[in-house]
Amino acid sequence: MSPIDHRQTRRSYQRASLRRADLALDPFEQLADWLKDAESEPDATAMVLATADAKGRPSARAVLLKHVDDRGLCWYSDARSLKGRQLAENPMAALLFYWAGLERQIRVEGYVERLPAKDADDYFRSRPRGSQLAAAASEQSSPVKNREALEQRLERVQLRHPHGDVRRPETWGGYRLVPDTFEFWQGRDNRLHDRFQYRLQYETWEIQRLMP
């Protein structure tokens, strides 16, 4: 393959600034403000979820934020997936939101816990039928021979559930990252970015500016 060189690929970040006075005292409130600002961005609720197994081997992928409660940030997935298996071994994880149009990032770190089955049932019932069928047909992250074999699995599930009564697979459920650290990043010119970190110290969020 030909060498790939992006050392001269860059752009300036000049859209906005971020000052200590701009920040909410509670990082959940700041998160809510920035999520609202990002509503018009493509895939505004997409977040990169980074996990690691018991030996520390990392893995990352994009998932969709589904709701935020007073404990943390929640999403849904199959426990048989790589992320599910890694979280079962090592519940520490990190999330990353990135909105290119706003020149903003949010990093969130903490431990992950499973949501109650009722939450998973309620959300599963709210999903489009096609998504329900796909979840029931897929053993997420397991190898499959080809696309045809995957579609045949879907057809078998459709035959078993002809009238929309798709039951949530027991392995499919919700996760919540309970944060102890947030970082809000605003791109600035000449890479002199604005970065503010919230760290949970004895049930109080402490805020400090970080160097870029």
TrEMBL record:
Q: How is the cofactor bound?
A: Binds 1 FMN per subunit.
Name any cofactors this protein relies on: FMN
Give the residues the record marks as binding FMN: R61, A62, V63, L64, L65, K66, Y76, S77, K83, Q105, Q140, S141, W185, R195
Tell me which residues bind substrate: R10, R11, S12, Y13, K66, Y123, R127, S131, R191, L192, H193
Q: Which GO terms describe its molecular function?
A: FMN binding; pyridoxamine phosphate oxidase activity
User: Among its keywords, does the record have Cytoplasm?
Assistant: no
The function of this protein is: Catalyzes the oxidation of either pyridoxine 5'-phosphate (PNP) or pyridoxamine 5'-phosphate (PMP) into pyridoxal 5'-phosphate (PLP).
Give the source's domain of life in one word.
Bacteria
The record's annotation in SUPFAM superfamilies points to: FMN-binding split barrel (SSF50475)
Subunit and partners: Homodimer.
User: Could you identify this protein by its name?
Assistant: Pyridoxine/pyridoxamine 5'-phosphate oxidase
Which reaction equation describes what this protein catalyses? pyridoxamine 5'-phosphate + O2 + H2O = pyridoxal 5'-phosphate + H2O2 + NH4(+); pyridoxine 5'-phosphate + O2 = pyridoxal 5'-phosphate + H2O2
Q: What keywords does the record list, in alphabetical order?
A: Flavoprotein, FMN, Oxidoreductase, Pyridoxine biosynthesis
Record field: transmembrane: none
Q: Which Gene3D superfamilies match?
A: Electron Transport, Fmn-binding Protein, Chain A
Q: Which residues form the Pyridoxine 5'-phosphate oxidase dimerisation C-terminal domain?
A: 172-212
Q: Which family does it belong to?
A: Belongs to the pyridoxamine 5'-phosphate oxidase family.
Organism equals Ectothiorhodospira haloalkaliphila
- Please state the pathway this protein functions in, per its UniProt record: Cofactor metabolism; pyridoxal 5'-phosphate salvage; pyridoxal 5'-phosphate from pyridoxamine 5'-phosphate: step 1/1; Cofactor metabolism; pyridoxal 5'-phosphate salvage; pyridoxal 5'-phosphate from pyridoxine 5'-phosphate: step 1/1
> Which ranges carry the Pyridoxamine 5'-phosphate oxidase N-terminal domain?
43-159
Pfam families the UniProt entry points to: PNP_phzG_C (PF10590), PNPOx_N (PF01243)
* Entry's EC annotation: 1.4.3.5
